[in-house]
Input
Amino acid sequence: MQASWIAVDWGTSNLRAWAMGTDGILAHGSSDKGMGALKPDQFEAALLDVVAPWLGNRTLVLACGMVGARQGWVEARYRSVPCTPTDPAALMRVQTQDPRLDVRIAPGLSQAKPADVMRGEETQLAGALALYPGFDGVFCLPGTHSKWVHISAGEVVSFQTFMTGEMFALLSTQSVLRHSLTAEGWDDAEFGAGLSDALSRPERIAARLFSLRAEGLLHGMTAPQARARLSGLLIGIELAGAKPYWLGQSVKLIGATKLSALYARALALQGLQAESLDATACTLAGLSALHAQLKD
Output
């Protein structure tokens, strides 16, 4: 089986690739050889481990994600907003040893003030706009580093990153709160309480976080309750900070199903209905749109 071209989403932790044909996906492969585990001279071999069976004489590989970071294979320098999410003219060509490979990397986006960057999300945004042409409003991309992105006339006007997912991971595994939490279990009422508390008094977040420990010691708060409350508190301060993005706006979510559902519920409690889009589908749509523009 030979691919017409290959789509690659190469993040810090893993590599995902799709063999693409005229009618869509022909095959899919992945590995745990993410950017964070590789030196620059190891990327080509890691890619070949996954895509070699799909290669012809000269196969185009369109890649997005951390593969284009300064610590990645080849740095694909950021494009400054306002701009379209992706631009075929800005793709970074990679010199390869294997003549069957024609690798090009999509650059991320940067914002001067307040200083901010994204890499990989720009392709998801391009895909979402390909799926919803003419959309004007806001995309929220929940994750380790959540993004809120204002889109107008097909361009990224501004964006803001929140380290919500990373803070949840650090607090739940490396702070005193680790003694009060569990990796499993959930309590919807506690999530809602934490969300409301943080939205109404975001300046009290440091005190509210420690109270999770005290509630467990003094009043029997269970580990699942504490986990849900922590999630509500952190998403709550994110919504408080991102209020100019979502208040009165049309919002669509791009991310993993479970996390997007939490954000959708949090926004619904503020009276806003947000549609959720699949992150992988958006990534593939974005890379496919780039491929179509290159053919044009």
Observations:
- The radius of gyration is 21 Å.
- The longest helix spans residues 223-241.
